[in-house]
Amino acid sequence: MRDLHSNTNERWALKRLKNHDRVSRFEREIKACQKLHHPGIAPILDYSLSQPAYFVTKHYPWPSLSECQPLPPLEALKTFLKLCDTVAYAHQHGVVHRDLKPENILLSENQDVVVLDFGLCYFEDEEHRLTETMEQVGSRFFIAPEFESGRADVVTPQADTYALGKLLYFLLSGKRIAREAFTGEDELSHLLKNPQLLYVTEKMLAKAITEHPRDRYTIPELRDAAVQVKQLISEHYYPGREGAKCRFCGEGQYKKASSMSLHVRVPGREKNVGFDILICEHCRNVQWFNTEPSI
Ligand SMILES: Nc1ncnc2c1ncn2[C@@H]1O[C@H](COP(=O)(O)OP(=O)(O)O)[C@@H](O)[C@H]1O
Ligand SMILES: [Mg+2]
C-alpha cells in the first residue's frame, strides 16, 4: 500500500501514501505520532498531506519482530514488558493502536522496541466513537474478536491487550495462533516442551486473549503479571550467581564456596551437570545451583 524508504546514514524513514483516498488514515497516523512522545514510538520529523502525502520519521536500523527468531523466555518477557509500557503510554494519552502485530514492531538487540503504524488507531476522545465503521481492523491472528466483523461499537484499550497476548505467544514460539481457545496442543508449555511456560499460559494468556474485553486484563494488570512470571522463571529456572541476592533472606549476597560436576541419569540418557555451591554472606544459607539455565 505504501512505500517506506530509508536512508540509514541520515537516520530517517520516509513513508509515502500511494492511494490518496486513504489520506484520513494517514493523517490519523501522523496525529497519533505527534501526540505521543515516547522512546518506543517514532517521532514525526516532517510531513505533508497534500498529494503526494508523506511523512518522515526517525529511522531505526532494526528488524521487525516478524523477522526475529523466537526468543528465550526471559528475553521474550523483557521485550514484552517494553511493549506493554509503550502501549500503556499510548493508552494514557487516549490512543488505542488496534493493529499490533509482529510486522508493526521493531526490535533491537537489547530488546528495545518501537511500535509503528498507527494508521488504524482510535482516539478515545473522538465524538463519533459509537457510529464509526471501520474497514477490516488489524491482522487476522492478532485482531480482537470484537473487531472481527470490521466494526466495533465500543472500542476499549483491551483490544490491544488481546493483540499483546498473541504477541507474547509469538515472541516465545514464533507461531501465530488464530483461535483464542487453547487446547492441550497449542499450550505454550506443551508446544515448546517446556513445563515452565505453563506460568505464561496460566497467568497471562488466559487473561489476555479471552474473548470478552470485560474479562481481559488491562495493560497494567498484564504488565504486573509479566513481571511476576519473569520473576518466577528467573528464580526457579535460572542459576544463582556469585553476587546475586540471597533467595532465602533476600538481604545478603551469594559467595561461591565451590563447584562440582555430577554425572546424572535422566530417563533414556546420561549427562554431566555442573553445580555451583553458593553461601549467603548474610544468613549463611547454602544453595546449590545448576550452572546452566534449565530453560
Ligand atoms: N521508522 C522506521 N525505521 C525502520 N524501519 C521502519 C520504520 N518505519 C517502518 N519501517 C519498516 O517498514 C515496514 C512498513 O512500515 P509500516 O509503518 O508498518 O507501514 P504499512 O502501513 O505499509 O504497514 C515495517 O514493517 C518496518 O519494517
Ligand atoms: Mg504495517
Description:
With 295 residues, the protein is an alpha+beta fold. The protein has three domains: 12-58, no CATH class; 65-234, Transferase(Phosphotransferase) domain 1 (Transferase(Phosphotransferase), domain 1, Orthogonal Bundle); 239-295, Single Sheet (N-terminal domain of TfIIb). The protein has helices spanning 23-35, 73-92, 158-173, 188-191, 198-208, 219-237, and strands at 2-7, 12-17, 44-48, 54-58, 95-96, 105-107, 113-115, 122-123, 254-266, 269-280, 286-290. The strands form four sheets. A four-stranded antiparallel β-sheet has the order 1-2-4-3, covered by helices on one side. Strands 9-10-11 form a three-stranded antiparallel β-sheet, with no helix packed on it. A hairpin with a 2-residue loop joins strand 9 and strand 10. Helix 2 (73-92) packs antiparallel against helix 6 (219-237) and helix 3 (158-173) packs antiparallel against helix 5. It is elongated. The two termini are 41 Å apart. Magnesium ion is lined by residues 103-104, 117.
Q: What share of residues is helical? A: 25-40%
Whole-angstrom Rg: 23 Å
Named once each, the bound ligands are: adenosine-5'-diphosphate, magnesium ion
CATH architect. name of the largest domain: Orthogonal Bundle
Euclidean distance between termini CA atoms:
41 Å
Low-confidence stretches: 129-133
- List the total number of helices: 6
Largest sheet: 4 strands, antiparallel
Beta content: 15-25%
**Count of domain modules:** 3
Total E-strand runs? 11
User: Briefly, what CATH class of the largest domain?
Assistant: Mainly Alpha
Derived from helix and strand composition plus strand pairing, the structural class reads alpha+beta
Strand neighbour order, sheet with most strands: 1-2-4-3
Indicate the mean pLDDT.
Answer: 86
